[in-house]
Amino acid sequence: MAMQSTAVEVVTADIFDAYHTLVSVCEAQFRSFGKRKSLVGECETLKVFEDHTPVLEALQRPGRERILIVDAGGSLRVGVLGDRLAAIGVRNGWSGAVVFGAVRDSNGIDAVDFGVKALGVTARRGSLKMQGFHNVPVAFGSVQFEPGNWVYADNDSVLVSKTKLTIPPAQSVTE
Questions:
Q1: Topology at the third CATH level for domain 12-161
Q2: Which helix (H) or strand (E) element contains residue 23?
Q3: pTM of the full predicted structure?
């Protein structure tokens, strides 16, 4: 059964300005996919390499509006998440995923109420079955993500905090 969307719009620059001593900024440069352009939620972590199967297994579990952080080793050779997996994530209540690696079927992902930050895209999917490591600390982009950390992401950046933060109101710009 699909969960009702509780998407929250965030501006990572405003969050950084309000909480610069509490957040870490991921230095990896991500591309954004999916209908959700910003993400807020507790994270679950996963370490994989060129195999989508552990990602599928994670997204089949109840998401509770969490964000799946996937350390795919930065590989752009094989997509570890595509439109079908994103749709499974939506059905199970995940709000999105941050993938330190590649995705595939980006046009299909863009049609789904799911947010994805990934390094890039490819048409290739994996054929090897590799073990994934669930809920272990993962590090990329000069940031460590631990299960239960809070993630805040938009088109500009991915931030991580050890605790849930009160999201500041969007700053208006006047001319």
A1: Glucose Oxidase; domain 1 (3.50.30)
A2: strand 23-25
A3: 0.93
